[in-house]
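Researcher: Go.
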Amino acid sequence: MIDFYTLTSPNVRKIFLMLEECELPYKNIFVDVWKGDNFDPDFLKLNPNAKIPVIVDHDGPGGKPITVFESGAILMYLAEKAGKFMPLDPTAKYQVIQWIFVQVGTVGPMLGQLGYFKMHGPKEGSEHAVARYTTEVDRIYKMIDKRLGESRFIGGDDYSVADMAFYPWCGERISAGKIGFDLDNYPNVIRWAAEIAERPASKRVAAFMPTIQSVRDNPTPEDFDRLWRRNGQTAA
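Model: Structure:
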């Protein structure tokens, strides 16, 4: 059994997709970052970086428990455990791995920063940040669209953990719209995202997400300050 410390962010949805695709048994343990659950001392023992997702696999290597944090690392661990969604051929494998690194090192941080400054940052004084991140996110979407014009999936010809890493960040029309991007401008992304959305595992995850309750559903200004580490807020 895998304990999955989770909520609703794109980074945790990656792991939901992988667990559902592999049909691995898991138990959800919800960590409401909007009220500071991620700063609980017990959680910090699992991830000193105070972020979700985290998994604890009670049947890890050699039958011993193992804790893994960081979404890219979790995807790679689960791929190895299940023997799925990661090529065995070294050349193809590193095609997938390099794109995972692009997602965790560039795509997530840049889209996340744009989302913050457009939706949660101060209205005045953020103009430079919005302009800077808008330009970078457009570059990113164009890069992904070009890649998907050359390859059926992000990592190559087959669906892989690279696609699971990218899809929650780049493949949802509503999320893109919130940061000012129309996916119709990136037709290869539209084609790719539509194919992934039709997968049974993707449909199960999409149906489950709205059932997860959080302080996020009715946040106060203090909740925003805590979540974004503003005004010295780090915990409840």
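Model: The chain has two domains: 2-84+206-227, 90-197.
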